[in-house]
Write a structure and sequence with these properties.
Elements (H helix, E strand, L loop, with lengths): L1 E5 L1 H4 L7 E3 L2 E2 H9 L6 H4 L10 E5 L2 E2 L9 E2 L4 E6 L5
């Protein structure tokens, strides 16, 4: 299974506990995890189903740079963390 966790900054909008989903492409994994809290998808994806600019996705502690295709293949044991990318000045 692939572990998917949404950071507290996103869960404050819609609670979604950590999920364990089957392996597959990153998009498939994210979509499967969001089935537990479909309302959270609006905070993660834009209207074109790309990852929003203010959201960062990490796979095994590495930032995912491709926000559109999300075709990175994940295998059992991988970990996905979705956080709100905060900026400041």
């Amino acid at each position: 299974m692939v572990a998917v966790e949404f950071a507290p900054s996103l869960r404050r909008h819609v609670d979604c506990p950590p999920q364990s989903v089957g392996p597959g492409g990153l998009r498939q994994v994210l979509e499967a995890a969001l089935q537990a809290a479909p309302e959270l998808a609006h905070y993660v994806f834009d209207d074109q189903r790309a990852v929003r600019k203010h959201v960062a996705v990490f796979v095994n502690r590495e930032l995912v740079l491709d926000r559109v295709r999300l075709n990175q293949v994940l295998v059992a044991g991988d970990r996905v963390l979705v956080i709100q990318a905060l900026t400041g000045g």
